[in-house]
Amino acid sequence: MLPPTLSDDQSVPFDDRGLAYGDGLFETVLLRAGKPVLWRYHTARLAKGCHRLGIPLPCQQALDATWQGGPTAEFEVLKLILTRGSGGRGYAQPDQVTPHLLSRRTPFQPSVERWQKGVAVRLCDLQLARQPRLAGIKHLNRLENVLARQEWSDATIAEGVLADSEGLVVEATSMNVFWQRAGEVLTPQLDQCGVAGTLRAALLEHGAIALASLSLHQLANVERLWVANSVQGVWQVTKLFAADGSLLQSWPLSQPDPFQRLAHQLLGVT
Amino acid sequence: MLPPTLSDDQSVPFDDRGLAYGDGLFETVLLRAGKPVLWRYHTARLAKGCHRLGIPLPCQQALDATWQGGPTAEFEVLKLILTRGSGGRGYAQPDQVTPHLLSRRTPFQPSVERWQKGVAVRLCDLQLARQPRLAGIKHLNRLENVLARQEWSDATIAEGVLADSEGLVVEATSMNVFWQRAGEVLTPQLDQCGVAGTLRAALLEHGAIALASLSLHQLANVERLWVANSVQGVWQVTKLFAADGSLLQSWPLSQPDPFQRLAHQLLGVT
């Protein structure tokens, strides 16, 4: 494991392959009182991404240094970007790869209102392409998410749900999707596309959720629906709109919400 | 059209969306005696990419400024990177988008030997995902090309040919693919994936080539095969290897090569 180049000014040069090709990975981590939440899952996903892309994984000390020290707020978001580093023209990587590791902490306030009152979501027109070589990892090639997020500007719509080119539900633009069927909470496998979130990973490890397949047509008929990630926590979906703005389904806000309670326990935001 | 922010030090900050999400476009342009070759096609592709991604196109003056002035060599490569600029956390773009335009010129020497003697290419294992929303444009989400280029390190292999998930030939890792059937030169349509090269665009405009579909299985049986782009010119393929290294086909070097001659006239490298 090579020590990564730490960029003091938190910028990357013209020839950085993260900029040139999206050749790298990122993590978005909730810090609670200065300590990273689900850190083990974030570093595990980063390691998986490095293995998949063939990028040397920074040592644990370098990763820990991104959040250690400095003033702390109750909640912050730590964003890490790890790129393959500088390279010449062309897709072939240089003989000696020296990754660039960058990080930034910003104050953050989770939306308690969305935790308590739920959210409205919409379906996206954009269909995610199926690329198993890139599925699950949090790489820097995120134009599909950018294009999907451009589909709406109405602030009352909290998220957009994405299906793949086969019409199977994958994720929301920046969250994972969970639904309930026969009392069980389910989430897509993400072996063809999508980002496998760290909260999802923790919930899987705890046996709280199972993997399943769901077509976009079935989505409106699930017993309950949630979107969630490790920074925002769990939002119950109370309204589902089609891409054309028509209401497809509404669910009554169900309290208590054992799924949200468990997930928020894992995040320490109860 | 907004004036882009020109970065004097040719770096981008942490929050640049090109770095964060590959949210941008690039062009790689041959300069001959300081003048861009096929410049009209490069700016047209950039404009198409900006339209597709919703990024404001820099004014022509700003684009021209990337190659005007300075010392000139016989051949150089100009690389442009245009990103959506800085943005906050999350995929939603900021209310006010100010793109970052970066550029760099580097000396370049085309391989006359490959023009004259042809090249060996191989098939890649990686299959390109089909995403019509991103097909044809030269965006910054190029992890598929990076992974494909990792498949070989043998310097005698000049390029790797990529098919999509349906098994249809799309492109080479950094070049377009052309083949001859019944005397006609053909190239894939690139409406599902792949980068539509500027040399390819010029050849299409001149009526020198036509669009067609070719399965990977048919590739070894074409009359002639070429890989080409606007920087390297046209390389006749004389040997085609499978991903496992076995020889699939060899073609005798055919001279004269009217296709190469026309393409090189368009590039001014005759």
What would you note in describing this structure?
The structure is a homodimer of 270-residue chains. Chain A has 270 residues and is α/β, with parallel strands linked by helices. Chain A has 2 domains: 5-109, 2-Layer Sandwich (D-amino Acid Aminotransferase, Chain A, domain 1); 113-265, D-amino Acid Aminotransferase, subunit A, domain 2 (D-amino Acid Aminotransferase, Chain A, domain 2), CATH 3.20.10. Chain A has 7 helices and 15 strands. Chain A has helices at residues 17-21, 39-53, 60-64, 112-117, 143-149, 198-205, 258-267; strands at 5-6, 11-13, 24-32, 35-36, 75-83, 100-107, 119-128, 157-164, 169-172, 176-181, 184-187, 210-211, 224-229, 233-241, 247-250. In chain A, strands 7, 8, 9, 10, 11, 12, 13, 14 and 15 form a 9-stranded mixed beta sheet that branches. The first copy, chain A, has a 5-stranded mixed beta sheet with strand order 1-6-5-3-4. The longest helix of chain A has 15 residues, at 39-53. In chain A, 49% of the residues are buried. Chains A and B meet through β2, α1, β5, β6 and α5 of A and β2, α1, β5, β6 and α5 of B. β2 (11-13) of chain A pairs antiparallel with β2 of chain B.
